[in-house]
């Protein structure tokens, strides 16, 4: 039978099963239990932050962080237009308006030079997204934020383990959010985490994720909160994954280097970069067609699918999606309009062998040969 290559597969090759069994045997299956604390402690140790707070997914992590930073109805929050929809939606959940920014052509991340033109008296903060695993150029962004009194949240859903000038992603902004969905660097099935060095933000997030209950007074709710908790079972999986975090990160990088090895000479393609100040964790290996149309890109994807190779298109930019398209004009985003039409992610998971990547690359080249 022909081998099939999905875009992503979680790799659960550590103590995950043992720890989950421990939860079941001990009946600690809900949102209390020792794995929650162990996972949170391990996570903030890894990210080099004071706090890590678990929650139900990466989207609720963003919502919690925005609320803790005081985002309210009528506020504006600056975000990159090239991101997963959760970044924009979380801003909307607060009744605030996302304001979109075009990307840098090489890293595909938010372009710091375009941010100040979009700051208004209503701007409360900036969410940066380390897209596909490459860190955002944080220094200019932190400078802008300081100058204008804004918060910075790192949406680090795709970048656990990445580094910026030797600092861990997740430790640079005022807070950072992570997703632990099945295709992320490490997974808990569904799950999220928020890191911060700010005691007040951490305390506010813990309050809001547990229905707003006063930690000193049971069934007393000083604010309207949410049930955004992670379960001990999820944390058990996550703790098992975190024990092998270096392996998980190294595999993504290994796979990306193999794609680079077999594709970098192909003048028809652009590959992800790694700036000299960055450690890119290559959450998703990617290719962008240098020429052609969105139809050509889609044709390549269909042809690869027929060869058993699953790909996925780059995210549609936020400024094109129906709930957000009225906010800004399409012409404002020339860089993202091009890369989102011509980019795709290719199979990126830790158990791909060199032979697998070689086979995928050979097929990519053959399909490109067929493009006229
Ligand atoms: C995956 C992802 C999220 C959302 O995470 P979920 O756990 O699926 O809610 C948010 N932002 C970005 C950039 C993501 O890639």
UniProtKB/TrEMBL annotation:
Entry protein name: Aminotransferase DegT
Biological-process GO terms, alphabetical: polysaccharide biosynthetic process
UniProt family annotation: Belongs to the DegT/DnrJ/EryC1 family.
Record PTM N6-(pyridoxal phosphate)lysine, positions in chain: 184
Organism of provenance: Paenibacillus selenitireducens
Gene Ontology MF annotations: pyridoxal phosphate binding; transaminase activity
Active site (catalytic residues): 184 (proton acceptor)
Cofactor(s) the protein needs: pyridoxal 5'-phosphate
Coiled coil feature spans: none
Record keywords, A-Z: Aminotransferase, Pyridoxal phosphate, Transferase
